């Protein structure tokens, strides 16, 4: 079966035909795929050994797991879900505010991070590197740092989300600007326009759909992250959820989980719909 | 036909212009003058250097050597940004791919032509004067676009888009108009319309014109003078009537035709073997 | 386009009335088209109002934050140590988290592939399966993975197995949807032709569908691996072991030197991985 797969990847003929050899490019590509598959297989073996993970545990323990869910978590207990709706609003607020403020900051920074509009490529790499740093360091690390210095609660939850958002949006906005600028900027150059007018009259109008689309996506990401951030002390619904779980109040916790999931789904659907409309314009 | 007197008549003077990309010479020692009111076309194969020459004139591309005098400024030299912008605002440029901002209306695109003439503050905020707007409307009407002014640039046909590009260039009230293959992306009928418009407007407004073209017949029909380029060198600079078939071959290089024929013959042989 | 010639002519001091198609507002000629600009203006306005409005009613404590920022020196000083001494103890935990990420990615890809076959509307055996499965997976995707892990932790105990299972669940939802979409994209003509030659479903899958999607698959694998690694780290914090656990413990016991080493390991790895995937992507683009 594998042979059939590779057979289709060849354009025509092979060494067997004695007529043409396999083109070098295809050989290289195939070799690359082999290497990738080999790496994956190796990683699989090594890590399975390391964790002595037996996938069939799942089937054994599935019973336990399902039993647990059915017995201990259903039906969800909304009665004792104190602070459920308040914390929900807090979480939503965190996500929106982080996106809003983050959007503004990224909007200002992105022009420095784009090859089209930045004064020098050194600046571009610098800003992109910083943004990358903010993205790669997992949110929780920021949270820990802030916890040490500022305590817990929604304020620092917001700050953690903000850092992540700025890192993400600066990069994404910069990519939009990269794609969009080019030809029309050349035209404006030829009319003798200065730098700022070029940005304001050409780049920004053309980039707005892209910006809005990423902004909406960022809202979705932040709502998801807000759950985790909350669980680490960032306030909102995540924090209360963690609290109930730790206190073995599973039924109540389940109520929280359901509400969180519902919110994520709803906001996800709304943002997807808006993004489609934005991009089609 | 050239009287060397009346240098005040010369709008653009290019001397020994050259441009290297690494070891390749895109433009090799090109010299020519453009006088007021002339309609000059540049013909040649793709890659002969026509585009590069144009872009060197308004410094979208930095030349490697030579002198370009326009408006008492040497465009080939380094200069402060303000001077560059001011000089550029006197040169209109029409692009092959129109280079419009497609999300904006036709009207807004045309107004961009004034940005080089406004203060940075006004330009950034888009504070165009009412008289500028009225003039834009005039230009658009004379190009037949008065019904499209509030449409998005992306909603127009190719010919209409190029007319917007031309209107934008005319808004600058330039003394020189440069068109880089303005009709290469258009169908034959629309091409003729656009050429008519360009030459018509140039004559009416007294603007000198340089146009890059592939179509030799258009060049002969519309221009007062033809420049022929081949592999970066200027091989023809004279009146259209004097562009004989020989001269055309010279510009486009007979070898290209020969090469094509040879490739065809080789292909036929190869097929004979395989078949 | 309504024609309002009167206003403009009057404004320009009674000049000869031009047949204007130019709209006026405040007497100034309009150059943009409100039909296009209004949606965005409305959106921006709503977004701003929503964000600021929500923020207003929530008891944020920015005052305290600002005060703390000013005094940041005191708070930062104890953080500024780094301690490589116990790195040999730390690395195995890193390996553990890495393993969780690798295994969950692989398993979720395989399981997702399996489900995708039933989720793709053009190759599913039963018409009712796709919408049901899609709904289930959307629901699963909405729940952050840490919830699953917590549930598994609570029901099955600690260790890397729960972590793997938890991460696999949400990762599977992603792959199932991604693969299903990819299957649906395959040209129906190709499928028909293959069926006509008598090939059974499995053969179709391997000969026609898989090859064309290969580059996309690699992209998904890499993205998901990063996400899963990120997730596994976070889960370590809540008790699933691995380097997240180390980080939490170190921060909790104020051993900041160790904490930074662990953090550094994570960041370094993520960065290195991102760079290598970029290189891989470029190579594939060049040859593909």
Describe this structure in words.
Chain A folds into 2 domains: 16-69, no CATH class; 84-280, MetI-like fold, CATH 1.10.3720. Residues 1-20 of chain A have low confidence and may be disordered. Chain A has 11 helices and no strands. With 281 residues, chain A is mainly alpha-helical. In chain A, helix 4 (84-110) packs antiparallel against helix 9, helix 5 (121-136) runs antiparallel to helix 7 and helix 6 (139-150) crosses helix 7. Chain B is α/β, with parallel strands linked by helices and 275 residues long. Chain B folds into 2 domains: 6-90 and 175-243, 3-Layer(aba) Sandwich (Rossmann fold), CATH 3.40.50; 102-173, no CATH class. In chain B, strand 9 and strand 10 (233-238) form a beta hairpin. Chain B is globular and about 65 Å long. Chain B contains 10 helices and 10 strands. In chain B, the strands form 2 sheets. Chain B has a 6-stranded mixed β-sheet with strand order 6-7-8-3-9-10, with helices on both faces. In chain B, strands 2-1-4-5 form a 4-stranded antiparallel β-sheet, with helices on one face. By secondary structure, chain C is an all-alpha fold. Chain C is built from 12 helices and 2 strands. A two-stranded antiparallel sheet of chain C has the order 1-2. In chain C, helix 5 packs across helix 11 (243-252). Mean pLDDT of chain C is 74; it is low at 1-18.
Tally of DSSP helical segments of chain A? 11
Q: Report the structural category of chain A.
A: mainly alpha
> What is the top-level CATH class of the largest domain in chain B?
Alpha Beta
Major beta sheet summary of chain B = 6 strands, mixed
Question: What is the third-level CATH name, the topology of the largest domain in chain A?
Answer: MetI-like fold
Largest sheet of chain A: none
Strand content of chain B: 15-25%
Number of contiguous helices of chain B: 10
Shape of chain A: globular
| CATH homologous superfamily placement of the largest domain in chain B | P-loop containing nucleotide triphosphate hydrolases
Terminus-to-terminus distance of chain B:
60 Å
What pattern of helices and strands is seen along the backbone of chain B? EEEHEEHEHHHHEHEHEEHH
Arithmetic mean of pLDDT of chain A: 78
Distance separating the two termini of chain A: 46 Å
Shape of chain B: globular
Q: What is the CATH architecture term of the largest domain in chain A?
A: Orthogonal Bundle
CATH class of the largest domain in chain A: Mainly Alpha
Helical fraction of chain B: 25-40%
């Amino acid at each position: 079966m594998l042979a059939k797969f590779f057979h289709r990847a060849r354009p025509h003929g092979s060494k067997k035909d004695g007529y043409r050899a396999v083109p070098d490019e295809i050989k290289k590509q195939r070799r690359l795929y082999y290497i990738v598959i080999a790496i994956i297989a190796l990683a699989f073996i090594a890590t399975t050994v390391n964790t002595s993970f037996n996938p069939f545990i799942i089937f054994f323990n599935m019973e336990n797991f399902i039993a647990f869910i059915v017995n201990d978590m259903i039906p969800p207990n909304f009665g004792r879900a104190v602070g459920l709706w308040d914390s929900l609003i807090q979480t939503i607020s965190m996500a929106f505010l982080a996106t809003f403020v983050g959007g503004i900051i990224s909007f200002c920074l992105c022009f420095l991070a784009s090859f089209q509009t930045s004064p020098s490529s050194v600046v571009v790499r610098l800003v992109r590197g910083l943004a990358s740093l903010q993205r790669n360091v997992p949110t929780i690390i920021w949270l820990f740092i802030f916890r040490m210095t500022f305590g817990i609660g929604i304020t620092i939850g917001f700050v953690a989300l903000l850092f992540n958002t700025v890192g993400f949006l600066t990069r994404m906005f910069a990519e939009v600007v990269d794609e969009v600028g080019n030809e029309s900027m050349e035209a404006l150059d030829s009319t003798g326009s200065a730098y700022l007018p070029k940005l304001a009259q050409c780049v920004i109008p053309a980039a707005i759909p892209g910006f809005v689309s990423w902004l909406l996506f960022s809202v979705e990401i932040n709502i998801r992250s807000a759950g985790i951030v909350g669980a680490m002390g960032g306030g909102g619904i995540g924090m209360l959820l963690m609290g109930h779980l730790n206190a073995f109040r599973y039924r109540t916790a389940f109520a929280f989980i359901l509400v969180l999931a519902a919110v994520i789904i709803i906001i996800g659907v709304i943002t997807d719909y808006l993004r489609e409309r934005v991009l089609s314009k | 036909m050239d009287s060397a007197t009346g240098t005040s008549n010369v709008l653009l003077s290019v001397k020994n212009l050259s441009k290297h990309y690494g070891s390749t010479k895109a433009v090799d020692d090109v010299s020519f003058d453009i006088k007021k009111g002339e309609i000059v076309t540049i013909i040649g194969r793709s890659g002969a250097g026509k585009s590069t020459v144009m872009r060197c004139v308004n410094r979208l591309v930095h030349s490697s050597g030579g002198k370009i005098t326009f408006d008492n400024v040497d465009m080939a030299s380094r200069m402060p940004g303000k001077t560059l912008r001011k000089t550029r605002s006197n040169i209109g440029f029409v692009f092959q791919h129109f280079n419009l901002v497609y999300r904006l209306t036709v009207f807004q695109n045309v107004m961009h032509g004034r940005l080089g003439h406004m203060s940075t503050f006004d330009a950034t905020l888009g504070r165009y004067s009412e008289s500028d707007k009225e003039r834009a409307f005039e230009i658009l009407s004379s190009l037949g676009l008065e019904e499209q002014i509030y449409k998005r640039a992306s909603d127009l046909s190719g010919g209409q888009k190029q007319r917007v590009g031309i209107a934008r260039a005319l808004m600058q009230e330039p003394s020189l108009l440069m068109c880089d293959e303005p009709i290469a992306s258009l169908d034959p009928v629309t091409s003729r319309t656009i050429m008519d418009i360009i030459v018509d407007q140039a004559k009416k407004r007294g603007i000198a014109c340089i146009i890059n073209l592939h179509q030799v017949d258009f060049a002969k029909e519309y221009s007062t003078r033809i420049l022929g380029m081949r592999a970066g060198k200027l091989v023809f600079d004279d009146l259209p009537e004097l562009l004989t078939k020989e001269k055309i071959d010279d510009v486009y290089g007979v070898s290209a035709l020969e090469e094509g024929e040879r490739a065809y013959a080789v292909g036929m042989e190869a097929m004979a073997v395989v078949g | 386009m309504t024609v309002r010639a009167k206003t403009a002519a009057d404004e320009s001091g009674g000049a000869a009335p031009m047949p204007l198609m130019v709209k006026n507002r405040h007497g100034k000629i309009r150059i943009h088209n409100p039909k296009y600009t209004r949606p965005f203006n409305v959106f921006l306005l709503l977004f701003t109002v929503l964000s600021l409005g929500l923020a207003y009613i929530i008891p944020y404590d920015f005052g305290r934050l600002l005060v703390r920022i000013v005094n940041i020196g005191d708070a930062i000083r104890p953080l500024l140590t780094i301690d490589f001494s116990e790195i040999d103890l730390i690395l195995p935990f890193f390996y553990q988290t890495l393993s969780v990420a690798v295994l969950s990615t692989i398993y979720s890809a395989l399981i997702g592939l399996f489900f995708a076959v039933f989720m793709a509307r053009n190759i599913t055996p039963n018409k009712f399966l796709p919408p049901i499965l899609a709904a289930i997976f959307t629901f699963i995707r909405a729940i952050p993975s840490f919830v699953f892990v917590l549930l598994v932790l609570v029901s099955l105990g600690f260790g890397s197995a729960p972590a793997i299972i938890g991460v696999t669940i949400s990762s599977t939802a992603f792959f199932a949807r991604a693969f299903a979409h990819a299957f649906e994209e395959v040209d129906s003509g190709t499928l028909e032709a293959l069926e006509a030659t008598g090939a059974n479903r499995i053969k179709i899958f391997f000969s026609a569908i898989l090859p064309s999607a290969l580059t996309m698959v690699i992209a998904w694998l890499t993205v998901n691996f990063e996400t899963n690694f990120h997730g596994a780290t976070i889960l370590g914090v809540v008790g699933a072991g691995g380097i997240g656990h180390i980080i939490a413990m170190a921060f909790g016991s104020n051993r900041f030197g160790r904490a930074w080493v662990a953090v550094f390991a994570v960041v370094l790895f993520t960065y290195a991985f991102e760079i290598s995937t970029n290189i891989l992507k470029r190579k594939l683009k060049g040859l593909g």
